[in-house]
Structure formats: C-alpha cells, structure tokens
C-alpha cells in the first residue's frame, strides 16, 4: 500500500495533488449554490477533477429510508463520521491507484447516494465486472489534481477538525471557505425555499456557529471568509489562491503531531486532577529532600 508520501508523489512520479475544501456557514447562506457554480469553473479554468459532496443530498434520505424519523444530533454525528469513512475509501483508491472497495459496515442507502454522487461527477464508474463490490475510478479521477468540496454547515469547530484529521492522515491539501451571510438574509432566503427549515433552527445555529478562527487554531490557517453575495473577480482570485495554496502545501503529518501533542498538553495541564497530582509530587519530593538534608546535618 502506498504511503502519504507516495500520494504527494515525492518518490519521483510528480505530485499527485489531492485536496479537501470545507464549505461552512448558516443554513441558506448559499453554500450549495456556490459549490454548484464553483465546480465547473475549477474544471474548466484549472483542469482539476472536482467532487462536490453535499451532505444534505447524501445523508437524510439514507436515514429516512431506514428509520422513517429525523435523526437526533448524536445520530447525525455518527452519520457524518460514516460519510467521512466513505470519503476515506474513495481517497485510498485514488492514492493507491486501485479500485474503490465497499465498506463492510455501511448504511446501505447512504452508501448508494454516495456512489451516485461520485458517478454523477465522473469520478467513479460502475462496479468492476469481476468484483461487484468494487468501483472503478475514472480517468478524470486518476489523472488530474483532485479537489473534494464538502458542503455542509460545519458550524462547530470539532466537525471541521474531523475532516482536517482525514487530510492529515493522508497528507492532503486542506482549506475552509466560510460563506458569510447575515441571519436576516438567511432567514429570508430560507423562507423562499420550497422545503424551508424552521426559522428557529437557523436562529439556533446562528447562536452556536463557531466561525473558522485561524488566530486561535493553527490548523485553520488556510481559511477564507467571503460574503455570500460577493461574486467579484477579487473574491474569485482569493478563492483560487486558497485552493492552490492548499494543494501545494498538503498538511504535514509530523508537524501536526507536534500540534496535537501541544493540544494534549494544554488539556492535561488544565486537568485539575493532574494539577493536584503534580503538586503532591512536588511536596513529597521537597519533604524528602529536606529530610535527607536534616540526616546529613
Ligand atoms: N447569492 C445569492 N443571492 C440570492 N439568493 C441566493 C444566493 N445564493 C443562494 N441563494 C438562494 O438561497 C437559497 C438557499 O441557497 P442554498 O441552498 O445554496 O443554501 P445552503 O447554504 O446550501 O443551505 P443549506 O445549508 O440549508 O443546505 C436558495 O433558494 C438559493 O437560490
């Protein structure tokens, strides 16, 4: 199996450039509309292979077919993680230049929607005739720089971090685009949709939203905020720059381990039990030192 270094092409074949881009923002901010316009532009102008994975298209239908009820937040979390696993299967096939296999434990309807999503964007073709549970990658998917654009609200930092961890695991490019749109505009756009969300959901998300914060989180440094109504050539240039920077600077595994260790250290040092333990150790050590000095005197 090839390593992350192979994926970057550091062993002489030229870089195999792969990137993940998160779209985040409030419901009805215009993420899906934006993604629909962005992907043909990137294919045409840059010659990249692009896959937009709209979580709304892949997840709810799958769940409703199986359980005929709206999932709870904890179930959404499990489904999001399952979808990331599917993405990993696809990425592994691209990195290893092999067929995409079918995960053994899967929510069948969600997997089917995921397959349809990749097929519709010319990234995989039908199951290989000799192995019904494998899918062939298309020439587009294997021969060009590839960007996967993940279209969800990603309103908690922790949701985005899961995707970042995937990028780190395979040393992929990673970037985030925050589509900034006022609450009022989102409510207004939502109200005009055929299947509008309850306004309260948008209010709630507006309160909970954790915008990308590159000052606080080093891993979010490759983030861009653009106004949802902005379609200027300047915004377009900034966006291309963001994506190119991500492709050319894939997440470094070792570097980010250091960052993870630092995060663990902070968690550890703020842990009261750990602090009490440290204090106890210091007192014991000081008492023993004093006792030894008394013995010598
Ligand atoms: N720039 C824009 N100007 C005006 N209307 C827009 C704009 N972008 C999107 N809309 C409209 O707003 C509505 C919501 O757009 P869209 O579905 O793209 O949002 P979204 O952020 O993907 O929403 P959700 O997170 O709920 O899936 C649609 O009816 C769309 O036509």
TrEMBL record:
Keywords carried by this UniProt record: ATP-binding, Kinase, Nucleotide-binding, Transferase
GO MF entries: ATP binding; kinase activity; tRNA binding
Top-level taxon: Eukaryota
Protein name: L-seryl-tRNA(Sec) kinase isoform X4
Organism: Panthera pardus
């Amino acid at each position: 199996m090839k390593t992350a270094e192979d994926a970057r092409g550091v062993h002489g074949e030229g870089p195999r450039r792969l990137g993940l881009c998160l779209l985040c923002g409030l419901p009805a901010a215009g993420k899906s509309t934006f993604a629909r316009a962005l992907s043909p532009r990137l294919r045409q102008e840059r010659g990249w292979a692009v896959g937009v994975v709209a979580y709304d298209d892949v997840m709810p239908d799958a769940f409703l077919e199986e359980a005929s009820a709206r999932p709870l937040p904890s179930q959404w979390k499990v489904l999001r993680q399952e979808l990331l696993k599917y993405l990993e299967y696809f990425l592994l096939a691209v990195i290893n230049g092999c067929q995409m296999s079918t995960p053994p434990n899967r929510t069948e309807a969600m997997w089917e929607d995921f397959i349809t999503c990749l097929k519709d964007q010319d990234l995989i073709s039908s199951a290989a005739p000799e192995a019904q549970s494998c899918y062939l990658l298309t020439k587009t998917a294997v021969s060009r720089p590839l960007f996967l654009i993940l279209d969800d609200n990603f309103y908690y930092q922790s949701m985005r971090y899961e995707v970042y961890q995937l990028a780190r695991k395979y040393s992929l490019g990673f970037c985030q685009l925050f589509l900034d749109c006022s609450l009022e505009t989102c409510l207004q756009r939502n109200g005009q949709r055929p299947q509008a969300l309850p306004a309260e959901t948008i209010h709630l998300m507006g309160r909970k939203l954790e915008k990308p914060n590159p000052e606080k989180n080093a891993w979010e440094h490759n983030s861009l905020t653009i106004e949802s109504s902005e379609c200027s050539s300047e915004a377009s240039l900034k966006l291309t720059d963001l994506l190119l920077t991500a492709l050319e600077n894939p997440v470094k595994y070792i570097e980010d381990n250091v960052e993870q260790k630092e995060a663990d250290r902070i968690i550890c040092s703020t842990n009261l039990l750990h602090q009490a333990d440290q204090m106890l150790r210091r007192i014991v050590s000081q008492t023993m030192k004093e006792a030894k000095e008394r013995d010598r005197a």
